[in-house]
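Chapter review: from sequence to fold.
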Amino acid sequence: MKISPDILKPHPLLALLPYRKLKQLVADSAISERPKGTVIFREGAKCDAIFLIISGRCEGQVTGRNGSVIVDQVYGPGDTLGDRALLNDEPHRSTVIVATHCVLLRIPAEELQGIFTKDPTIAGRFSQTVTKRARLMQERLKNSRVRRVVSMLALAPRLDAQAVSARLGAALQNITRQQVLVVHLIKNGAVAHPHDWVLREPGFSDSFSFGRQLHTNDAGFDELRLPVGNEPRYAEAIAPLISHCGRHYDYVLLHVDPQLQPQIITECVIQADLAYVLLQPSVQSVYDFEMLLRAVESAAEAKPDHIRPVIFVEEPFNVDEFHEMFKRFERPVHSFARGFPSTMANSGPDHRCDLHINRLAREIARCRVGLALSSGGAKGLAHIGVIQVLEENGIEIDAIAGTSIGAYVGSLWAYGLNGDALEKIAREHEGRLGWLSIVEPMVPPRLGFIRTHRVAKRLRRSLGDAHFSDLIRPMRIVGTHRDTLESVVFSTGNVVQAVEASIAMPGICVPVTIDGETYVDGGIADPLPIDVLEEMGIEKIIAVNVIPTAQALRYWRQRECEENGRNKRSWSLGRFLNSQVNYFAPGNVFDTVLQAMNSVQMRVAEASTQRADVLLRPVGPDSSWHDFTHPGKYIALGRSVAEEQLPAIKELVNLPPANATSTVKKQLAAAAALQAA
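The token string follows.
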């Protein structure tokens, strides 16, 4: 690739080099193109050159806890790579990978060392320039600029993609309070010559090339409409366009016209950080998606993992049949969207659309909020109180992970019932004999003493035969495989069946069989499923743990002994009979089994709490796992704890989108805490 030295000379670092040396570098093929996914250098490797990004984008990645990869920085045109490592004579601090097709100028370390030896003043000015640019980069990080490029392609003809892109741009602007640009790439194949934006040469100008074509939307984000022809040059111009826009805006959303040439669509999908493909649950839409995947995989020479298929649902459809049809892609459906604006008359968006759009915006901005709900029997009714406080304060949750009672409460909320409706359901079992409505003895008790059918029947009254795709909030339900004792996460299929498996306490409840596999209570393997939210990529996690710690139990027992010593309780026939016939009474068989289960759950849950951003502990000394007859007590406890922690929750939710530095610090702090423990 040929580029004039005059275009490169204005760069602060290249301006230090003699013009003759710059011409030599250009002539010696030091300028090269690197496709997306190319590794420029790796963390810990010796620095043998610095690189200047002429066009394109790169990501700096560091290794986090448990080997996870975290984006440390995003680089664009005019940024240099490896200069600090060269200056300080140290290994690279991060791995740098091409995020959008790049044009790079490589300057070998020995060439620079030779220049510095001949003219030490250049070395001094080079050091000052690198230090100044490093400060600018730190300032960029401090301002939490995530800088992401997202493509949106609608392969659903009935979807009003124009309205969706506008709502997504508005949501991004509102959530991040940063600069958002929506670029509409519109088919215009009748032009005789390429449009000006295709012919633009790369450079380091601080001005935005499309300023005169910008339109600022009433929602505060900018819009840009670019006509696209059929020539191959349009496909080649997509990466430079993305890098130029990405240099001036924090978020760039490409709204891709599905009528564009396939090569152009493919390039838009490949070069983006995320690509949302909107589909309908139809054979034609799935076929179009398959063709797109094949084109992208062929052009990228790799299997892309940044493509997110979103299914636009207007009417009931066969979910199992659709999942079976989708299996061949070896990638899960990202989400099922309902209430989206349609091209049909009188078909505008509803509240479900707003929830989904906001969730996509927070995913783009890396600031999704997840809620982990622990196991704990009746004590888990406190989850309802927490949910009520979240609703009253307008705090949106992007994903829920629940175990046992957390799965039960979470599934109802994920389906769309509000906190008041949840409380109404809980109070149906209020009163001394209310628990009889959900207990179904197993005769003979060969597999367990209690069947879970009545609980499932009660839940089905609210959820019907809902599948996970019917939930308006993403939900993950945790069970334990009876034979392997491994944690199993349910994210597809029938919701009631998954909840029934998650609440089947071993030794007490009959295990639940789904598709030939047998499951017991999820609290055995994962009583507080924070890890499930982390695997989903959720950035901010609120955890509700109703399982008491050993220290709390010891304190409550000691206090109870002291009170009983001062106020000796008289003999009671009722208490005596209860201890003789009630298997759930303190010290009896069910109580002993549950205490043994709790001892395991307590330690696992406590280890998990280290990874929560905000931890709520609505646990009281008079709490009991089977006390479903006093729901108001636990709901009030959940409300009280949530209201106490409300400032911390609001601070977490209202934090600017997470940049990689803050994520790294969080993970290192968690690792240090675990090591100290």
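Two observations follow directly from the output. Confidence is low (pLDDT under 50) at residues 659-677. The two ends are 56 Å apart (CA to CA).
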